[in-house]
Structure formats: C-alpha cells, structure tokens
Amino acid sequence: MAIYLDHAATTPMTPEVLGEFTRALAVAGNPSSIHSQGQAARRMLEEARLAVADAVGAETVEVTFTSGGTESINLALKGLFWAREGNRVLSTRAEHHATIDSLEWLESHEGAVIEWIPGDDAGRIDLDALAAALSPDVAFVTTLLANNEVGTIQPVREIVELASAHGVPVHVDAVSAFGSVPIDFAALGAAAMSVSAHKVGGPVGVGALVLGRGASVTPLLHGGNQQRARSGTMDAAGAHAFGVAATAATRDLAHLPQLAALRDRLVAGVQSGVPTAVLRGDPVDRLPGNAHFTFPGCEGDSLLFLLDAAGFSVSTGSACQAGVPEASHVLLAMGLSEADARGALRFTLGHTTTADEVDALVAVLPGVVERAHAAGLS
C-alpha cells in the first residue's frame, strides 16, 4: 500500500466524515423547497453553514458555499473587482494558479491593471513594497494565508492593516492553511476568505467564500439568489460533510505541534541523507505539515516517478503541460533559477501520517535522488 505524503493536494476523508457524508446523501429534498423534506435538507445545510462559520471565526451569514476553492477565489476576485471603482489590483506572483489565472483574465477582459508585489526568497510578500503601491484607486489586494507550495505563512494581519488605511479590501486565500493553523476571520479583518472542504478531510467539490458583512461582490452565477453571493441549488450533503470535517479539523489544534515534529523529523532526515537538498520556504513560519525541497541536478518529475514506484505519493508542486516539465512559478518568483526550480519535491503530512512512514521515506530517498541525478535534467 502506498504511503500518502500529498495532503496539500487533498487529504483523505476520515471514517467519521465518510459516514456522515453517506448518510447525508440519502436525504431527499431541495434545500429551497418549502415542504418538509426540502426543509430537512435546508436544516442540514444551515447547520453545516454554522459549523464552517464557527471553524473559521465568522458569522453564518458570511459563509457562501461554493463548488470548491477555485470557484471561491474566482468569485472573490472577479466579484470584488466588478463591485469596486478602482482598476488596480495588488498581489504576488507566488499565488496559487486559481488566483493568478483569475487576475490575468481580469487584465485581459476587464481592463484590470495587475501590479505584482515582490517577495523574499521564502515567498513572503514585501510589506514595504505593498505599502508604497497602496492607494484608494486599488480595487483589492489578494494574498495567500500560507503558500500552497513552500508553506510560508504570510503576514496577513499586517497586509490587512496597510490596505485598510486606504479603504482597500483584502481577499485571503486560506485553502492551504485551513485546518493547519488557527484561523479567525473576524480578527483578520479581511473582506473575503476562500476555503475548501477536501483540504480538511471533506469531499471534493465543496468549498466556501467567507464574505464579511461590510463587503460586496458581484455574483458570477445568476438564477435564483439561493445564497448571498451565489445562485444555484446548494449541495446540502456536501456542505454537511464539509461542516463535519471543518469541526473535526479545528476543534482540537493540539495535534499541530506533533504534526510539526513529524515534519521536522522528515526535514532532518532528508538533510542528513541528501546533504545537497535545499529546504525552501520559511524554516520556522511555515505550515506544520509542509516540507518542500529542491534537489540540485535532478528533475522533480523523475524524483516523483521513482518515489511513486517505491510506494510513496508526493508532489512536485509544479505544473506539467503536454508532458513537458515546467518550473514552479512560485519558486521562480522566489528568485530561483529555472534549473533549480525544476528539481522540486513537496512532502505534505496529515492526519494519516506516522513516524514509520516518515522514516521509510527518509530511508529510500538517497537512492532515488542518486538515480534521478544520474538521469539529469531533460
């Protein structure tokens, strides 16, 4: 059986969530119907909305269910842009593709002026550069809470404070951070925040946009006004499973130090077994389950395939189009050369990871790196 070390991509459902999801799928009725079966589905949906709101420190009215993180981000960015008067948008090139592609679409089709704020070699935004770029004509700022590839945690409160001084709303992509760090939407002061169910052990195809009471977005979807910022029949069963997963992931964050200790065990083992490996991202202020390395002279895809053959599921954290390896845009934004960026592997741990699994990876990795290095860069 493969050892799963790709929790940042998706984390397996727990038996509790799977059981509740299966039970909820048997509930008939459209949540918008007024008969008793429809209202039973509505009750399940609203209980899920409360659970997600509690998990992220928001109010229930602020939670709009979506089809996942990508839709949430698209709704936030396009919706904020259309609802605002300014045409300048501030972000970094180290964002998730859902953000970058949305911003580039706004630039191509809606006249947005995208200004890319530089970051440091850990992938953290330059606050001085952000402060210099801010002005009332900025439509919004969008930032990750934690980088989905290298795990660096961003100074979101400082970003929001800087933007708020100019009356500029901030969207926070918390998809990778949700369940891995404490999140309090109210305390952050952001206008909007995106989260996704399958990153915390819920089903794929469900997410949420948390939209502050004072924030306004123009909807992407029209036809029913079933939710504050989104039309469409709501997935009550998926939302229920999301609520169960969100509650489980956030009700006891005491496990996070143990997860960080496992990550540190992996990092130490990799650095000992492969001295040339370079840990990327902030060494301290990073997600507790994230260990991201580059291996000089190696192709990340070669490392991934060799590890897959050895029974380990990991990620390069980079895109691959038409079978041609492509360097991670995140690592390039951090200042790495294309050759160095192509030698990336991301190991992400979660609730199923054990010390024995970490040790097994550490034991097999030196041989894998040796073989990949011999193959070289394609």
Automatic annotation (TrEMBL):
This is Cysteine desulfurase. Residues 3-361 form the Aminotransferase class V domain. It comes from the Bacteria. Its cofactor is pyridoxal 5'-phosphate. It catalyses: (sulfur carrier)-H + L-cysteine = (sulfur carrier)-SH + L-alanine. It comes from Antiquaquibacter oligotrophicus. GO terms for molecular function: cysteine desulfurase activity. It holds the Pfam family Aminotran_5. Keywords: Iron, Iron-sulfur, Metal-binding, Pyridoxal phosphate, Transferase. Belongs to the class-V pyridoxal-phosphate-dependent aminotransferase family. NifS/IscS subfamily. The lineage of its organism: Bacteria, Bacillati, Actinomycetota, Actinomycetes, Micrococcales. The keyword Lyase does not apply. Gene3D superfamilies: 1.10.260.50, Aspartate Aminotransferase, domain 1, Type I PLP-dependent aspartate aminotransferase-like (Major domain). The keyword Iron-sulfur applies. Its EC number is 2.8.1.7. Signal peptide: none annotated.
